[in-house]
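User: ok so my PI wants both of these folded by tonight, can you help

Assistant: No problem, let's get them done. Here's the first:
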Amino acid sequence: MSQIQLLRVFLNQRLTAAAEEIFGAVEQTIAVYQEECCRTKKENDRLQKLLDLVIKPEIKLHRGDLQEVPISEEEVPPEQHHCENKWNPSRLIAAADEIFGVVEQTITDYQEECFRTKEENDRLQKLLDIVINPEVKVHRTDLQKVTVSEEEEIHNILNLRLKMVIRGTREDPGKREMRPEKVNGPVSVLKRK
């Protein structure tokens, strides 16, 4: 055989093996998807049944035809006489109605609680959003401008105080001493000690 024929045979074998490997992988993938689809369908059916039970409960009472077996009074112990009265069909139906009423009330209460909880969660979420992402709006307000007459008055008070300190005179001891103090700006104001 020539080199080209050997190469062809080798390539055909390799391509056939690769194709078989690819088809095997595709078949495995399809099988996995089919199993997953089947499981998903079963899970969906199960969830749908649960949902149907919750949304549309179909609880039915079937009243069976009771056959009365004749029993003589001698065979029935005295403790069971009051049990017969306790388990008669009308009392059972009344008890079942009462139970269903309680169940319906519980479901209604639960739905109301869920609604209140949802409203509370929404309110808390809004508060959390406000805390996390506050919308702070800053408004600039102009500072109150000091008029010339106020500046002059303050200047006069400071000069008077300075003259008093230079002369060595003090206010009488009953009064508090006034001293100038710097306040966030170019104007000094008097502050009581």
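One down. Here's the second:
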Amino acid sequence: MDELHHWLEVRISSSLRPRTDDIKSLLLNHKHKSCLSEFLKNEDVHTLYVYFKLAKASLAASVSPPPALHNKCICFLKLGKTVKLTLENIGQNVLCVDCARFPLKYFDTILHQVYLPLLCNDGVIAGETISADKVIDLLHRFSGNLEVLAGHAEGSIVLPMPSIELLRNPSLFSKHGAAIHVMETTVIGWVRQIKFVLKHDPLTEIKTHGSKANIYHEESIWNLHIHNLQAINTQLISAQAMEIVSHLEQAESTYGSVVTAVRRDVTKALSEAKENLAFLKALLKWFDLLKSTTSASERVKNLLPMLHCLLLVWTHSR
């Protein structure tokens, strides 16, 4: 067992580069050493996480993912069927994975900068025993999901883009339909996300605030909707998105025109949202004055212009 602990210790030191005292503290701490032993002895425990509790403080170990990362983490993952770990087989049955503070971005970077360029290599594509088409498709789907999840975690809408190497590799276009299929799948994912944003229902959203919902909540809702639409529009008119549309149109794929149609819908929705917010802000000016007054006469004085403004909004809104 000591030899197995040493095997973990060597990899922890290589990955996290802790001080010698940090390693000693980790192994002397009963709770953390129990996690290491549990991973090594228990065939039903498949993961082990070792990380710094703070930016560069003492090390900690856990068999479940830490709630937050302040620095890099190393994850040990058992592969395949459960086996009793020994010094002879641990190298073949346990995978070591470094993980940055923001795991989703880290894995997305690894996929885009390591695995996808390798698969787009002509030598790999020409291999007779490897189904590169299917692997490229699956990796792009996985990469796209990672980008979307990372965006949601930050409160933003992200339209995942295929690998640059894929778009600029002539071998993939001349020899394989995989490239076009990947781009079509990408566009389908875009449309799914965009349609969800276009289904914006302010009345349903305002109800989530319960009985305390007010005009300020509605202003926030419209601001967020405009922000999402602008983010989508910026991504749709980006050079990479336009390159995808161009490739699809050259391949006579119907999904090229789908992007153009969706972009029109986004532009229209953005114009309407900005108009609604402009009307709302016109009312907010009088609502703020009404809210700040204390006397009844002042409230009546401010109420009438607000009602007149409301009439104008009702008259001129579409």
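Residues 35 and 132 are 39 Å apart (CA to CA). The two ends are 74 Å apart (CA to CA). Good luck tonight!
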